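User: Structure tokens for both sequences below?

Assistant:
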Amino acid sequence: MARTFAYCRVSTTGQPTENQMLEIAGAGFSVAPQRVVEETISGSTQASARPGFARLLERLEEGDILVCTKLDRLGRNAIDVRSTVDALAARGVRVHCLALCGVDLTSPAARMTMQVIAAVAEFERDLLVERTKAGLARAVAEGKTPGRRWSLSDKQRADVAKKLAAGAKVYGLAKEFGVSRQTIMRIRDGASPATA
């Protein structure tokens, strides 16, 4: 008989997973408490690198069902989600996502949907890279220096450099000028703010 598991992930400790379990129960999935895996970890962490998800993978067997509320619970991006779903499908585990009307992501129709989502995600990522490069090129063409700006004026940086040469300590100068020690060290080392 198929067992149903739920994977509930939140990003910060202040967020509860109860709402996800309420959604899962409301969608008609009955999950025994011992089959609920709750995890507090950033969504930017790849699914295979999450301790709770790794433990869940050890428990899942052929014929089992895994339910989650949204695709981003399963992975850091569309490609990661697709890889996770494909790996589970290869083991005979069905994956249901409530955000996609509870559809079984391992079904042929859902696999096609996942391919479209992955293609759109890749397209958006490529557009973002293009826009970033174009913006940097435009800034350079306008004579701007890309990267972070100094938190101190030219005069203040010159004062810091003089005081460092006179033997002042990094910590004291950071406190005096109201900046981080790293800022003072970058001035000492002759680095630009963009290299921080």
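Moving on to the next sequence.
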Amino acid sequence: MKRVLTSITLVALILCSPIPAGADVVLDWNAIAVSTLVSQGQSPFAQARFMAITQLAVFEAVNAITGDYKAYLGTVAAPVGASADAAAVAAAYYVLKNYFPLAPNLDSAYAASLAAIPGGSAKSGGIATGQAAAAQMIMLRLGDGSSPPQFYVPTSVAPGVWQLTPSCPAAGGINLQWQNITPFGVPSVPGDQAWIAQFVPGPPPALTSNRYARDYNEVKTVGNASSDLTERPQDRADVARFYAASSPTFVFNLAARQVATAEGSSLSENARALALLNMAANDSSVAAFWMKYHYVLWRPETAIHAGDLDGNARTDADPTFVPYILTPCFPSYPSIHGSAGNAAAEVLRRIFGAGGHAITMANAALPGLTFHYTRFKQITDDISDARVYGGIHFRFDQEAGADLGRDIGTYVYKHNLRPANEGGGRHESDDGGR
């Protein structure tokens, strides 16, 4: 079995040594892009958006040369004989350089990648194709609703209504604007978020319901910073810490690179898989933010402090409750880790099959923590546990996020970047792979 590298280790190798001939530059630059976004302090939601832009530019550049799939933009033309490798490198580099001009090592990585490609008209034609794809994707996303930042101030202190938590700035709940972003993979009218309605799984359970009481008491028991090993086993504590530090973008791009390498997928196949993955992750985050600020459900720490006010006799209050990990500053329902993770996993499941993989998760920010998976669902199950055992989400938040993500992942996969001959790849199936 081939040794598996973490994304940070892979990026370090790429930046410190020439890229060997025959390396898959799509996978290499995916690792560079993720590392760049993390090093530049981008939020998990911004990471999803920037990765979708980057990977779609890479896809469009490569596909303009190979013609294997139906185009996304359809306006990028490639010279005859252009190098797909050079196109992929240039597309990723020029997107990242546009948004992060001061990011270290991009220039050296670009030079190293191009040095491994023989000179000539194929190389120069590929670079021009990549530049064009990058420029057109950047232009397409101008004014897409991702900025300027907007904040939400609660208008009520009634039971069940979200209130500011310790991580919040004085301005209020963050990323209010994220619900207005134009999706990448679902048709929409600019400024109109009606597209989300087809995916919304419904409201959270009533505060007086048995379901609410059950999930309230679960997170109260296992998610408290003071929960002991009987209530929160060490492996669940490790999962909570790992997925607090590891965004869906980091996790599922790393998984995709490992599986694609093991499968021996082509440059063109990898360009498409990574584009679909990141489109779905972004679009599910947009829909999840709409739901969050539509239902404005309180977080567990607020709920548990006020458990005697919710009208449910089965939810005792604990004013000393502190979540094991820091609560993000926006409403609870649904989980964005759940939605983005499941959207990405659904795309990967349909392309590569549900199981039989060798995936190793590690993050240099948390040395000593390593997780091994053979199925994509094992990752999303751990993400679900991570947010509950971390004390920041109810289980129904996770389940609604998972439903939302799977539905959006399915839609993005079925309606975008389809094979030119509609034959699919080796394992692909509209019914979910093997």
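User: Anything stand out in the second?

Assistant: Confidence is low (pLDDT under 50) at residues 1-22.
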